[in-house]
Design brief:
Layout: H1 4-14, H2 18-37, H3 41-51, H4 55-61, H5 69-98, E1 101-103, E2 114-116, H6 118-123, H7 127-138, H8 146-156, H9 160-173, H10 175-204, H11 209-235, H12 242-249, H13 253-266
Antiparallel strand pairs: 1-2
Length: 279
């Protein structure tokens, strides 16, 4: 049986066997962030989508210099993981900025404490405001971590442990939706991977009209599957509903509705409401 290095070199010479190579490399790429960083399935899937468009170029750029292809792949994935992690941290910062959370840039990412902007604390003063602020925070329970809870809990008038327990309860109520979201995400990822493979195979089938037509038909079906999965993902609510927040806190849904409405009006001048990814 040929080694992975030999099959990559054969693909470079003949431009055949791409599907088998991608199928073998996909689990290695997908699991790489988990082995290196301990990331969850969601982050691993996003990393795979980040790397997949570069797989063809990666296969073409490999040169046999005595080291196996696996060594080259590991070095490339390490580099791509650094780029992806940088973009991922930037995305996490967007959520922090939406609540005017400020970190100390001189400290490392692991040790930098999260601090709430004084502007927020100057607006949230009364008990009803604190309760409404708690509603707002629980809307973001999906991305709430212990460090952020320490900054937000005093403003909401509860302890960090209580805030985290409420967030865990809400996340437990979202289990079915998270399962649906993961199902659609897997469908999207598989369709995307197939699309990239078919597009590459189409380039080599330029002189074969029959094969090109078959590939175009498969490509159209794959694109429709990906679009369908993405539409279904968009319909899965990421934030807990106001009713769920009311159940956890023991208050009517209407109280949560009106509380969020009035708090957002109060905070209108503090930050751009379009950056509030809460509804």
């Amino acid at each position: 049986m040929q080694s992975l290095t030999e099959r990559v070199l054969r693909y470079q010479r003949t431009r055949q066997g791409l599907s088998d190579l991608v199928e073998e490399l996909a689990p290695r790429v997908y699991q790489f962030p988990r082995r290196k960083m301990g990331w969850d399935e969601d982050a691993c899937g996003d990393f795979y989508l980040f790397v997949h468009p570069r797989l063809i170029r990666l296969l073409d750029r490999f040169r046999d210099q005595g080291k196996p292809f696996e060594s080259y792949l590991c070095a490339v994935l390490n580099w791509q993981l650094r780029n992806f992690a940088r973009d991922r941290r930037r995305g996490q910062t967007n959520w922090n900025v939406s609540l005017h959370l400020e970190g100390n840039e001189e400290e490392s990412e692991e040790s930098a404490p999260v601090r709430l902007s004084p502007v927020i604390t100057s607006v949230v003063r009364t008990d009803p405001d604190r309760r409404n602020f708690l509603f707002l925070v629980l809307k973001c329970c999906r991305t709430l971590d212990p460090e952020t809870a320490k900054a937000l809990a005093p403003v909401a008038g509860i302890s960090p442990s209580h805030l985290l327990s409420l967030a865990v309860t809400l996340q437990g109520m979202r289990t079915a939706r998270e399962s649906r979201l993961e199902t659609f995400r897997c469908r999207r990822n598989r369709a995307f991977a197939l699309i990239r493979v078919l597009e590459t195979e189409l380039l080599s089938a330029a002189g074969d009209a029959e094969r090109a037509a078959a590939l175009q038909a498969r490509l159209g079906r794959a694109k429709r599957r990906m679009q369908s999965a993405m539409k279904r993902m968009a319909r899965v609510g990421l934030a807990p509903t106001n009713r769920e927040i009311g159940v956890v806190l023991g208050v009517p849904k209407g109280t949560v509705d009106s509380g969020l409405y009035w708090l957002k009006r109060k905070l209108w001048s503090v930050y751009d409401p379009d950056s509030l990814r809460l509804a």
